[in-house]
Design a protein that fits this description.
- Helix content is about 60%, strand content about 0%.
- It has helices at about 5-20, 35-50, 55-60, 65-75, 90-95, 100-105, 110-130.
- α4 (about 65-75) crosses α7 (about 110-130).
- It is an all-alpha fold.
Length: about 130
C-alpha cells in the first residue's frame, strides 16, 4: 500500500490521467504530449466548461477543487471519470495505491470517488505549474 503523497503513487496518478485523457472532442491545434501539457489542457477545458464566470466562482465559494469534483462527476469527455458511474472507484484507487483487497475494503465507493478526484486534481494543478 502506498501513501497518497508518495513518489510512486503520484507517478501512478499521472499515468492514470494520461491513460484516461482524450482530446478528440476538443480539436486542439497541437495534441498535448507531456504530462504538464495534458494537465494544463484538462484544467483549461474544466475552467471553460465549469469555472469561467464570476457566478461560477461564487456558486462554489471560490473553491476550484469543489467545482472540479462537480465537473468530474458530470463525465467530461476530455478525462474519463467513469468511476463515478460504471467502473469501481475503489478498484481504480486500489490500483493506483497498489492496495490488496483487504486494504481496498476500507473505502466505500463514494469515499474512493472523492479521494480519487482529489488526487487527480492535485496532480493536474502540479502539472499545470510545471507547464507554466
Amino acid at each position: 500500500m502506498l501513501k497518497t503523497n508518495s513518489k510512486q503513487a503520484r507517478a501512478n496518478i499521472r499515468a492514470y490521467i494520461v491513460d484516461n485523457f482524450d482530446a478528440t472532442n476538443y480539436q486542439p491545434e497541437t495534441e498535448p504530449e507531456t504530462f504538464p501539457e495534458i494537465a494544463a489542457f484538462i484544467l483549461d477545458a474544466f475552467r471553460a466548461e465549469k469555472y469561467s464566470t464570476a457566478a461560477d466562482r461564487r456558486y462554489y465559494g471560490g473553491i476550484e477543487s469543489a467545482a472540479f469534483a462537480d465537473w468530474a462527476a458530470g463525465l467530461p469527455s476530455v478525462l474519463d471519470t467513469c468511476y463515478y458511474y460504471n467502473r469501481s472507484a475503489v478498484d481504480d484507487l486500489g490500483a493506483i495505491l497498489e492496495e490488496t483487497d483487504s486494504e481496498k475494503a476500507r473505502y466505500t465507493e463514494s469515499d474512493a470517488e472523492r479521494l480519487l478526484t482529489n488526487l487527480i486534481y492535485r496532480e493536474l494543478k502540479k502539472g499545470e505549474i510545471e507547464n507554466a
